[in-house]
Amino acid sequence: MFILFKIFHDIAFFSWDLGLTFVNLVLPNRPVGKVTPEGHPGYGGKWPEYIPPKEGDSRCSCPALNAMANHGILPRDGKNIQFKEMGRLIRTTYNFSSSFCYFVPHYAAEKVVKKDYNNDTFNLDELDHHNGIEHDASLCREDSALCPDQSKPHVEYITQLLAHATGKDKDGNPLLTMKDLAKYSSKRRADARSYNKKFTLGFIHRMFGSSNSSTMLTIFGGRVKDLETVLLEERLPENWESRVRGKMGLTFAAFNLTVTPVELMISEKKYLKEKAAKEANKDD
Ligand code: HEM
């Protein structure tokens, strides 16, 4: 019976997401400057005051959720958050679709935190359960076996990631591209595999890795200047709004047009080959 319910639930979910994707194709985008809905934090580019976390506040491995707490969009102490409320706030802050904002908090409740989606609350640090959504070879954190506190940005990796940007916007500002993201992910996976004795990264966590990092290209448009603020300070830049302008927000189906190519381009083998070639050239 449960399996039948699960099949029905998944078919309903993916139909809903595809429906929203279709609506986005036919309706005009939200105008620039009007992506964040009126009456919600961030409307007109005005984000509530940024206050970095204090001793005792709860933060996690997700820079986007930490930024919401640092602006008081989620509770500033990062505690007693309702799953449903988090989904609603992700939708208005970042313009993800209602399907995404239902599915991910639901997954976090059931599979990571192991709590009731409708009735329970959680603290941000509970999301850091290793190999729930959190995984090895992240781009913004050291592996949890080497750094059990996953709440703080790992400055060295973020700086290296942003230094990989090869794209340019129309004003010449640096942009991170799919290729750049795949190249740095290849390095992180190969390096972490070599020095973390407890390293694991199965298929599902490779996909989570590419999904999380692909938000840097979709929601943040690959803009290095914005990403510096978001990833290093866990703060939303003044006047920032989501780069996704679809009326229904970013759906899973549309998101996968970025996530899948990024994942397919990641190659630890290629990275190791290029590294060996560079070292051989140095020795000559
Ligand atoms: C319910 C919603 C969400 C949950 C439960 C969640 C959870 C997580 C977790 C556990 C990580 C750590 C993964 C790792 O080990 O690298 C993570 C990373 C990340 N998330 Fe989220 N997240 C959510 C929403 C979002 C949203 C809305 C965005 C973008 C606007 C976002 C952007 C990111 C980014 C950029 C990373 C860093 C990836 C990396 O270091 O490689 N997340 N998220």
From TrEMBL:
One of its GO terms (molecular function) is metal ion binding. Coiled coil: none annotated. Residues 46-257 form the Heme haloperoxidase family profile domain. InterPro entries: Chloroperoxidase, Chloroperoxidase-like_sf. Its cofactor is heme b. Keywords: Heme, Iron, Metal-binding, Oxidoreductase, Peroxidase. The keyword Cell cycle does not apply. It comes from the Eukaryota. PROSITE patterns: HEME_HALOPEROXIDASE. Belongs to the chloroperoxidase family. This is Putative chloroperoxidase.
